[in-house]
Amino acid sequence: MKIFVTNQNKSERVTRFIISIFLIPAPFVFDCNIFSISQFSAGVILLFNALSGICVIYRLFGVNTCKF
User: Fold this and answer.
1) What is the mean pLDDT of residues 51-55?
2) Which residue, among 11, 2, 16, has the nearest Cα to 55 in the 3D structure?
3) Residues 51, 12: contact at Cβ < 8 Å?
4) How far out from the chain centre does Cα 43 lie?
């Protein structure tokens, strides 16, 4: 059983990358409060998902959107 298997298709990865670009600079643009830090955290997670193609939540639920 492989641990790190890509389970996202290309369109999902591109979408997550675009969303992360808007979320990551939130603490630098707005005041550094809990909401902007949570946006930054979500952006970092989405960026990891976009670059690696691995979504841990998909893995927990057994979802795989890649075509074989």
Assistant:
1) 90
2) 16
3) no
4) 7
